[in-house]
Amino acid sequence: MPSKIDEKKDCGTSVDEAQPREGGAWAERIRALKNVPPVLHFVWESGPSVVFWNITIRIVVAFLPVGIGIIGRFIIDGVNRLRMQQPLPAHFWWLVGSEMALAVLTGILTRSVDYFDNLLADRYTHHVSVEVMRKAAALDVTVYEDPVFYDRLERARVQATDRLAMIQQMGRLIQQSVTAIAFSIVLIKYSPFLLLLLVAGILPAFLGESHFAFLTYAKNFRQTPLRRQMDYLRQVGGSKEAAKELKLFNLSEYLTNRFSALSQTIYEQNVALNRRRLFWGGILAIIGQLGYYAAYGYSIWRTIQGRYSIGDLTLITTAIMQAMGNIQQAFSTASGVADQALFLTDLLAFFEMKPRVQNKEGGFKVPRPIRHGFEFRNVSFTYPGTERRILKNFNFFLEPGERIALIGENGQGKTTVVKLITRLYDPSEGQILLDGVDLREYDLDDLHAEMGVIFQDFMRYEMTARENIAVGRVEVPHTEEEIRYAAEKSLAASVVGKLHGGYEQMLGRRFEGGVDLSGGEWQRIALARAYLRDAQLLILDEPTAALDARSELEVFERFAELTEGKMALLISHRFSTVRMADRIVVLEGGRLVEEGNHSQLMALGGRYAAMFEMQAASYR
Ligand SMILES: Nc1ncnc2c1ncn2[C@@H]1O[C@H](COP(=O)(O)OP(=O)(O)OP(=O)(O)O)[C@@H](O)[C@H]1O
């Protein structure tokens, strides 16, 4: 049976997956270079002064080998003069001292470059990770149901945290280019032909390297879904939640085999590519060597002819080696940067994603108090990327001071109503009004601030008990009394009372000293969050399912007290709770089919009465 997710084509945001194809490699690579400027911008933003010093020192370091080479030439020619019975040139020992000073300086500055590289990488990782988290938070909940988005988010996360190499490469590219240019100028001074020989030798190797770097990227890109599956299997295999089922259904072996099969596929693809790279890389490297020896042979020949001195030959040899080494490295670093830039396609695409649910600039503040309440006017809704209409011309209102219970069998659209009233989604057709004004006209943050919502699948934060309650309202500081009051109301106080560390007790098992709670206990803690919010609308979506009947009754008695004068929307399958509502709304097939209070609906003898009787009978 296809899952909900399988059915989706597009979920909330336009995620156009530009799969890199092997054929379009070069065009793709050149296009990817447009990613470099925005990334440089990120790098710059992470620490302008660190970037400045990094580049400045690298440029100084880049010139040092040229200086050392040129001084070396004079030293060698000087010594050679002795052999020809001539005196040492003036300042000879100064030259030796300067060469040594430059060597020492190179050592010091190279270490400083490492220091600034690390500093910058840390800052960049921090900066981009924070931006990724902010962006992910700003996107619709819809995108989290989209596997394409997940792949992209995962790649973006890796790209945000794994770019030390890229930062170093960019710096090195500058340094290598400056050194290569400086030595090339030295060579051109002797003979342009030398430089030509070098470039001819190096170019094929560069093209080969770049091509394979792209293929590696394309391979990694294709492997992302496999890696996600592997991560999932690894996570399930080691998770606390799954441990019981894994043992009892004997699933561990099955999961391990699936993991191994995926891992093997990835391994084989990697080996195939690495073999090709080894073969072609080797051939192209030989061509490079030929270029070097041709230039070397040419200079020896000219020295024998007496056109170059021994010092010249030494300088030329150094210059050839350094120019060749640096050009080669600069090419491969540039290719590395282009490759990294391709990876960054995902990061940048992620940053460009736009949420469907937009916050209106300068939107209205939610009235305090709300006067007329919420109204669903002919609302229809289809989840993005699916065909089925979940709500069909749904009409419904919720007035101030009312407590409404929304009931219906599984999958009738109750939670969907909550998602719409909280603007996690916008209706496909029709309107939702608050005090007669479309919800979309209100400031989204302000709207959310007026709602206290606890969903069926509420979060269990692996934080202290206090923090688990306090996250209900992080916008403003709260007092100790407020936390305790919320805990009293939700019955969480008795749970906290039993904890060794009280409100400071770490919950969950992930961190040291943490203790786990039962489902019902977690639920009470989560409920306290809703109570902590000074919201005008409280929504509880089956929040008490894990509570025993007595606790649930107690929670709702308090709920009734607490919501006095506020609006409350309650979803529950327990009729003992539902009957306490001022009005009960029955949903079926995405439509409102009955509404009224308990006695009215019982008197009507319709669906509500039938469902109520069915549940009552099961208790008899
Ligand atoms: N994100 C989604 N994408 C696509 N379809 C969805 C999504 N969420 C829910 N649905 C579908 O919408 C229908 C209504 O779901 P909803 O969660 O609103 O039902 P419900 O009445 O709250 O059910 P329950 O009592 O089981 O909680 C279901 O058939 C469900 O499969």
Automatic annotation (TrEMBL):
<feature type="transmembrane region" description="Helical">
    <location>
        <begin position="51"/>
        <end position="76"/>
    </location>
</feature>
<feature type="domain" description="ABC transporter">
    <location>
        <begin position="374"/>
        <end position="614"/>
    </location>
</feature>
<dbReference type="InterPro" id="IPR036640">
    <property type="entry name" value="ABC1_TM_sf"/>
</dbReference>
<keyword id="KW-1003">Cell membrane</keyword>
<dbReference type="InterPro" id="IPR011527">
    <property type="entry name" value="ABC1_TM_dom"/>
</dbReference>
<dbReference type="GO" id="GO:0005524">
    <property type="term" value="F:ATP binding"/>
</dbReference>
<dbReference type="InterPro" id="IPR003439">
    <property type="entry name" value="ABC_transporter-like_ATP-bd"/>
</dbReference>
<feature type="transmembrane region" description="Helical">
    <location>
        <begin position="193"/>
        <end position="218"/>
    </location>
</feature>
<dbReference type="InterPro" id="IPR027417">
    <property type="entry name" value="P-loop_NTPase"/>
</dbReference>
<dbReference type="InterPro" id="IPR003593">
    <property type="entry name" value="AAA+_ATPase"/>
</dbReference>
<keyword id="KW-0813">Transport</keyword>
<dbReference type="GO" id="GO:0005886">
    <property type="term" value="C:plasma membrane"/>
</dbReference>
<dbReference type="GO" id="GO:0016887">
    <property type="term" value="F:ATP hydrolysis activity"/>
</dbReference>
<keyword id="KW-0067">ATP-binding</keyword>
<keyword id="KW-1133">Transmembrane helix</keyword>
<feature type="transmembrane region" description="Helical">
    <location>
        <begin position="278"/>
        <end position="301"/>
    </location>
</feature>
<keyword id="KW-0472">Membrane</keyword>
<dbReference type="InterPro" id="IPR017871">
    <property type="entry name" value="ABC_transporter-like_CS"/>
</dbReference>
<dbReference type="InterPro" id="IPR039421">
    <property type="entry name" value="Type_1_exporter"/>
</dbReference>
<keyword id="KW-0547">Nucleotide-binding</keyword>
<protein>
    <submittedName>
        <fullName>ABC transporter ATP-binding protein/permease</fullName>
    </submittedName>
</protein>
<feature type="region of interest" description="Disordered">
    <location>
        <begin position="1"/>
        <end position="22"/>
    </location>
</feature>
<feature type="domain" description="ABC transmembrane type-1">
    <location>
        <begin position="59"/>
        <end position="339"/>
    </location>
</feature>
<dbReference type="GO" id="GO:0015421">
    <property type="term" value="F:ABC-type oligopeptide transporter activity"/>
</dbReference>
<dbReference type="Pfam" id="PF00005">
    <property type="entry name" value="ABC_tran"/>
</dbReference>
<feature type="compositionally biased region" description="Basic and acidic residues">
    <location>
        <begin position="1"/>
        <end position="11"/>
    </location>
</feature>
<feature type="transmembrane region" description="Helical">
    <location>
        <begin position="88"/>
        <end position="109"/>
    </location>
</feature>
<keyword id="KW-0812">Transmembrane</keyword>
